[in-house]
Amino acid sequence: MEGGCNDANICFSLSDPATSNFTINYTLQGSATNGVDYPTFPTSMTIPAGSDSVCYVISPYADGISEGMENIIIVLQNQISCNTVSDTIVIDILDYDDLQINMTPDTTICGGSAIISTLPSMGVPPYSYVWDNGLPALNTHTVSPTNTTTYTVTITDFCGFQISDSVTITVGSGLAEAGPDQEICEGETATLAANSSASYLWSTGETTQSIDVSPNSETMYFVTVTGICEGYDSVTVSINPLPVVVASINPASVCAGDSANLWSSGALNYVWEASPSDISFNPIPGATNDFFTVAPKGATTYSVTGTDANGCSSTASTSLTVVPLPVASFFTQPPVASSFDPTFHFYDNSQGSPVFWQWSLSDDSEYFLQDFIHQFSVDEYGDYEVILYVENSFGCSDSIVGSVRVKPDYTLYIPNSFSPNEDGINDYFHISGINFPDDEFSIRIYDRWGNLVFASTNPSFQWDGEKDGSDAPTGTYIYRIYYRDTDGNYQVRQGNITLWY
Description:
Elements: E1 8-13, E2 22-29, E3 44-47, E4 53-58, E5 70-80, E6 83-93, E7 100-103, E8 107-109, E9 114-121, E10 128-131, E11 140-143, E12 149-156, E13 162-171, E14 182-185, E15 190-193, E16 199-202, E17 210-213, E18 219-226, E19 230-240, E20 246-250, E21 253-255, E22 260-265, E23 269-275, E24 291-294, E25 300-307, E26 313-323, E27 330-333, E28 336-338, E29 343-348, E30 354-361, E31 366-367, E32 372-375, E33 382-392, E34 397-407, E35 417-418, E36 442-446, E37 452-456, E38 466-467, E39 470-471, E40 475-484, E41 490-499
Parallel strand pairs: 8-13, 14-19, 21-26, 28-34, 35-41
Antiparallel strand pairs: 1-4, 2-3, 2-5, 5-6, 7-9, 9-11, 10-12, 12-13, 15-17, 16-18, 18-19, 20-22, 22-24, 23-25, 25-26, 27-29, 29-32, 30-31, 30-33, 33-34, 36-37, 36-40, 38-39, 40-41
């Protein structure tokens, strides 16, 4: 028997039941030590009256000490009636060798199946098997896990001793994932990325986990992902064409201060820029921004980026030419004319290269020349309105309202002698003229000693040669004439007049 495993049942028996207690005498011998290698065995045993036998179980210890085979020898020698009964029992005790187990090694599969097995040794057969994965109680199985799985088996031998071990089947990743299909705009770049693994090989020949591609047309890319296992996947990159964005402006050329219509087509929404900046141009962020009215101060280029429903964009531009306005201007020679000869030479002095002139004068005269000569009505005076309208070759125009002045000119005739003799010829000293002004007029006449002999504030005065009611003596007299002329300036005329009879 095995120490700690099985027992020996020792029985002593009589041919007939004992009429009284019957003591069985024996001696214990052998290499096994009583009470050490097995529980203490009594030195004698008694068959109770009325029984024909008595038994005792020997259960050797499993002390874990390698002692080789030992034995227990029971030598029986009893006197029954007149007979001497003897017998010898030899019980061998073997060391218990610990149960051991051998498992198939851990392994990796790329799909498919693997064989797992366990091989017990030592202990005491037969063996029984219990797998924690619900496998049948066999020592060998073929398994096909879909995920990495550990299989544990517990083996029990005849003696009830158990041992456990496990084997792991790793399911290698044969999965390749190149990512979802992508759409890009024409001319853009797509980044393709495979799932994490040990190595990669793309159909482009690249060996990195991610690659950048810029196909001209729809293209399918393949990737081989190698880790424990090898896997394949593909991804398709589709190309969305760029929108055909058109920027338009009408008219393409405007005069300074005028406006033009600006619009764009071919996309869904638009982002604009003006160069140089145009304060009249105000796109609204987030709006469609497909139509504007602009009035820049100078030549401007408008650039627009249009984006379609696919998020693809393209750019267009258009330019507006702003033609500077001509600046109407003129001058005359003379600047101011006399009413005796109210003739002016009109000269165009406009800037901006005008090619068309229209002169409108307040006397209803019109001229369509750059320069011309015009005479207003003689002996009429005043300010005459002049309107000059000019256009350049682009149709841009300007006008100016000015005036010319015809001043009321005059003549003044002062005689140098008179003869108040009542003959009807030169009887009076007086002045004459045309358009002579009478504002603030006065005349003073003095004799040669400086005495005032005549004074008047009437331009139509007449001096009859008298002084204080008497005829003034023949001689030379001095006159002074004061008046304000047609320009508002004070004038003084002084001279001599001879009086004779």
